[in-house]
């Protein structure tokens, strides 16, 4: 109701929360609005990906495709060029620079916001959200005891903590075991033998740290079920694919088998037309939400079991600089990639012995490591979460996990579906767990779309 103060609380001031806030500041609801952005870390507009770290990790997407504003696709590149005049759209720039950009984006939106909206940034950890009745305001509770009454709440909590292998139970507290590589500053020395569990993006970040000084690089082994490493990113044109893929994919999306062969067909077609298979993958990725929603549930299960590892590898790519580091470590015999299945972890004084079965064999192999680093990636199954907020939300029925353990059930605009099957109407989610409904919802490009649509909805008169 115009005239009455409306309060919108955003929980989590990482990428998604910041983009929702900046969009609301630029185009606010019609009446007086109090916008509260609650972040538990010291800084907003960073999140796990773009936080300041002692190592200059790189973005895995070229600068020209990292704008947080869809109407200004070169915004990040232009920001970067003010800091690094030689930067080009094809460069893979430091992730901390991207954090600075998000900070500037929020600040600029705050400074130019009209008078009827006010942003309040609060440092704290949200532990609960309560609802007395479906259409009444929500109560947001912080660990400190502070509370906010909110007309609308946006959950933008980011990636959950990393998953861990069931076999790792015996070493969770062992000093050689690193359960969350983002929780510490990684340091290595030449005498160490290190095992990375996983061979995808997190593992690539760890290899990047280890390879920063080749003379001191440890002996690294990286192991995953298939032993696949994301391929090199190329300067391909993301919108170049002009095949009639749309109709083909839609027709194929009722069956996983047809879908897989259609994607292969499109990739071959892209190459035959003188392009790059990456163009076809980007094309499929842009259609992923529609395809995912059409795919029968039994095929989604089969996809997760049999195809996901391959899709994730081809869909994520590594900066050429990083591939060079992989190659340098391999030629110096400091990096070995294995495909296999871990059977057991055995604590051996200050080392950990790992028993695994190499893929395609029935024998096992054992080796001791000075460090075992869990690079499996986030555990999206909120039913298993130990986060007080997720526990609170699931226990009081404000949200429900999706059946496949990919996140939570959401309706249009990320409206959180409650235990009675109702979406929202005043509780929303934006972030990587949208994958339960959209499959591809991880990269800045996809999340910015969801954040913009949600901000546009919140800016309407809704009560
Ligand atoms: C290491 C890494 C690198 C990535 N690199 C790229 C890349 O190069 N290009 C790309 O397109 N995408 C990349 N991504 C993917 C994507 O951009 C990020 O995952 C994106 O930042 C997700 O945004 P988010 O807001 O959902 O989560 P985050 O940005 O992590 O923000 C969540 C925020 O919520 C806060 N929070 C959580 N719980 C609470 C609570 N209870 N109370 C208060 N605050 C809370 C957290 O402290 C955090 O700041 C990367 C992801 C990761 C993890």
Summary?
This protein has helices at residues 15-26, 75-83, 95-111, 201-210, 245-252, 256-272, 277-294, 297-315, 320-331, 388-395, 435-438, 444-458; strands spanning 6-11, 33-39, 117-123, 126-131, 138-142, 147-150, 152-155, 177-178, 193-197, 219-224, 335-348, 351-358, 365-369, 371-374, 415-417, 423-429.
Description:
Strand 15 and strand 16 form a beta hairpin. The protein has 3 domains: 6-161 and 380-458, FAD/NAD(P)-binding domain; 166-231 and 317-374, FAD/NAD(P)-binding domain (3-Layer(bba) Sandwich); 245-315. The termini are close together. The model has no long low-confidence stretch (mean pLDDT 93). Helix 1 packs across helix 12 (444-458) and helix 6 packs antiparallel against helix 7. It is an alpha/beta fold. The protein is 32% helix and 20% strand. It is built from 12 helices and 16 strands. The strands form 3 sheets. A 7-stranded mixed beta sheet has the order 8-14-9-10-11-12-13. Strands 3-2-1-7-16-15 form a 6-stranded mixed beta sheet, with helices on one face. Strands 4-5-6 form a 3-stranded antiparallel beta sheet. It binds flavin-adenine dinucleotide. The site of flavin-adenine dinucleotide has 31 residues, from helix 1, strand 2 and helix 12. Flavin-adenine dinucleotide (FAD) binds next to helix 1, strand 2 and helix 12.
Write the layout of secondary structure elements.
Layout: E1 6-11, H1 15-26, E2 33-39, H2 75-83, H3 95-111, E3 117-123, E4 126-131, E5 138-142, E6 147-150, E7 152-155, E8 177-178, E9 193-197, H4 201-210, E10 219-224, H5 245-252, H6 256-272, H7 277-294, H8 297-315, H9 320-331, E11 335-348, E12 351-358, E13 365-369, E14 371-374, H10 388-395, E15 415-417, E16 423-429, H11 435-438, H12 444-458
Parallel strand pairs: 1-2, 1-7, 2-3, 7-16, 8-14, 9-10, 9-14, 10-11
Antiparallel strand pairs: 4-5, 5-6, 11-12, 12-13, 15-16
Helix pairs in contact: 1-3, 1-12, 5-6, 5-7, 6-7
This protein binds flavin-adenine dinucleotide.
Flavin-adenine dinucleotide (FAD) is lined by residues 11-17, 38-41, 47-49, 59-61, 125-126, 156-159, 389, 431-432, 442-445, 447.
């Amino acid at each position: 109701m115009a005239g009455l103060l409306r309060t919108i609380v955003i929980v989590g001031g990482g990428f998604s929360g910041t983009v929702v806030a900046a969009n609301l500041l630029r185009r606010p609801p019609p009446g007086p609005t109090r916008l509260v952005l609650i972040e538990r870390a010291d800084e907003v507009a960073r999140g796990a990906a773009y936080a300041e770290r002692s190592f200059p990790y790189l973005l895995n997407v070229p600068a020209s495709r990292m704008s947080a504003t869809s109407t200004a696709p070169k915004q990040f590149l232009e920001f970067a060029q003010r800091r690094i005049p030689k930067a080009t759209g094809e460069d893979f720039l430091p992730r901390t620079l991207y954090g600075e950009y998000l900070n500037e984006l929020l600040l600029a939106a705050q400074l130019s916001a009209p008078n009827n909206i006010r942003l309040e940034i609060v440092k704290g950890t949200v532990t609960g959200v309560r609802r007395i009745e479906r259409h009444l305001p929500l109560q947001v509770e912080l660990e400190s005891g502070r509370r906010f009454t909110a007309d609308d709440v946006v959950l933008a909590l980011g990636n959950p903590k990393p998953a861990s292998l069931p076999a790792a139970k015996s070493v969770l507290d062992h000093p050689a075991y690193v359960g969350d590589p983002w929780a510490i500053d990684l340091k290595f020395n030449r005498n160490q033998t290190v095992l990375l569990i996983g061979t995808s993006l997190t593992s690539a970040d760890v290899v990047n740290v280890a390879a920063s000084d080749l003379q001191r690089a440890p002996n690294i082994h990286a192991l995953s079920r298939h032993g696949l490493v994301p391929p090199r990113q190329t300067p391909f044109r993301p919108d170049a694919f002009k095949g009639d893929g749309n109709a083909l994919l839609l027709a194929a999306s009722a069956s996983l088998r047809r879908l897989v062969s259609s994607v292969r067909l499109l990739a071959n077609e892209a190459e035959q037309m003188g392009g790059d298979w990456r163009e076809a993958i980007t094309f499929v990725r842009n259609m992923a939400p529609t395809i995912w929603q059409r795919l029968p549930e039994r095929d989604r299960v089969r996809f997760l079991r049999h195809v996901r590892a391959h899709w994730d590898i081809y869909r994520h790519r590594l900066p050429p600089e990083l591939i060079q580091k992989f190659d340098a470590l391999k030629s110096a015999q400091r990096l070995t990639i294995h495909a296999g299945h871990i059977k057991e972890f055995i604590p051996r004084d200050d080392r950990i012995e790992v028993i695994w079965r190499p893929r395609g064999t029935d024998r096992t192999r054992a080796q001791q490591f000075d460090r075992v680093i869990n690079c499996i990636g986030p555990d999206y199954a909120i039913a298993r979460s130990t986060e007080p907020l997720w526990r609170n939300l699931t226990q009081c029925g404000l949200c429900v996990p999706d059946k496949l353990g990919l996140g939570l059930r959401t309706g249009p605009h990320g409206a959180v579906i409650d235990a009675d099957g109702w979406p929202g109407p005043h509780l929303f989610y934006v972030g990587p767990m949208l994958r339960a409904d959209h499959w591809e919802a991880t990269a800045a490009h996809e999340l910015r779309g969801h954040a913009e649509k949600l901000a546009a909805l919140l800016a309407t008169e809704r009560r």
